[in-house]
Design brief:
- There is one protein chain.
- It contains 6 helices and 5 strands.
- With 154 residues, the chain is an alpha/beta fold.
- It folds into 2 domains: 29 residues; 113 residues, Glutaredoxin, CATH 3.40.30.10.
- Helix 4 runs parallel beside helix 6.
Length: 154
């Protein structure tokens, strides 16, 4: 076997290995949250789509909390599991219209608000003006502190 044949075989092997790794990673690609319009019922935070949430915020003159995430983002899933499930966070979230946006599906919104890393939580006035943001993951207690800061600015 010539050197070029060995290199081709090696390249094919590496490609197949890469495909296998990506396939395994995709097995755990279930959404980190229900779809935005499904919400979580009485047991958790009620999430809306961007359009629906902004409409409600305008009607109720209520601040908006937008979670920008991706299904492949480890810290986005950690935020869902550890922070958004906390009863005190859930209670404090009732002061906001909560919106959840998959950045892979709604890159236009992530771009509009200059979101460069995930997760990013934005706090907006009802008119869409940004008042506060949380770049990255925070546990329940520091997250609630940031929510209070956003409420004080709203």
């Amino acid at each position: 076997m010539s050197r070029s044949d060995r290199m081709k075989n090696y390249g094919i092997f590496v490609l197949l290995l890469l495909i296998a790794c990506i396939s395994c990673a995709c097995l755990d690609s279930t959404p980190s949250q229900p779809s935005a319009t499904d919400g979580m019922g009485d047991a958790g935070i009620r999430w809306y789509s961007y359009e629906e949430g902004m409409k409600i915020a305008g009607e109720q003159n209520k601040p908006v909390m937008i979670d920008i995430y991706a299904n492949w983002c480890r810290y986005c899933k950690k935020l869902d599991k550890e922070t958004y499930s906390n009863p005190d966070v859930i209670e404090l979230a009732k002061n906001f219209v909560c919106v959840k946006i998959d950045s892979d599906e709604r890159g236009d919104i992530a771009s509009k608000y200059r979101v460069y890393g995930l997760p990013t939580v934005l706090f907006l006035q009802a008119n869409g003006a940004e008042i506060h943001r949380i770049p990255g993951y925070l546990g329940p207690d520091p997250f609630m502190h940031e929510m209070m800061v956003a409420l004080s600015k709203a």
